[in-house]
Design goal:
This protein is α+β, with helices and mostly antiparallel strands. Helix content is 33%, strand content 23%. It is globular, with a radius of gyration of 14 Å. The relative contact order is 0.24.
Amino acid sequence: MLTKIAFGGGCHWCTEAVFQALKGVIKVEQGYVASTGINSDLSEAVIVHYNTEIIPLSVLIEIHLLTHKSTSNHSFRSKYRSAVYFINSSDERLALEILENLQNDFDKPIITQVLAFKLFVASRESLHNYYAKNPDRPFCKRYINPKLNLLRNRYAHCIEEV
C-alpha cells in the first residue's frame, strides 16, 4: 500500500538523501513542515512517499532516529524540529508505539515528537536532490556520507544503490 509521512530532525538535505536510499521509498519531497499550536512554525523536513509492503513505518522511524540527533534538544531545534508528522490519523498511534518501543535502544530519552501534519512548503528547486547532484561537496562528505554508511552497515537489506 502506498502512503506518506513526514520527518524532521536535521538538515533536509541529509534527511532527503537518507530516505531516497531506501527500498520502498517512492518519492521524497524536501522542504519545510508545520504542525499546529506551538509547532505551527515551519521547520526543515521531508515528506516520504513509501510502499508499506516493502518498508514498514517502524523501519522508517528507526532509521530517522538514528540519522539525526533524536535525543538532543540543541539550540537549533526550532529550525530542525525532531518530529514524525502523521498525515493519516491512523499513523499517530502507531508512530507513538514505535517510538516507545525504540526508546530501549537509546541511552538518553528520545525527544522526537509525533505531530499532526498541517502545512508543507517545498524548498527551492535548486536544493532538491542535493546529495545526488553534489556528492563530492564538503557538506555531503562530512554530514551525509556518514548517515549513508550507517545504512550500508546496519540496513543493507533496506537500501537501494547508495
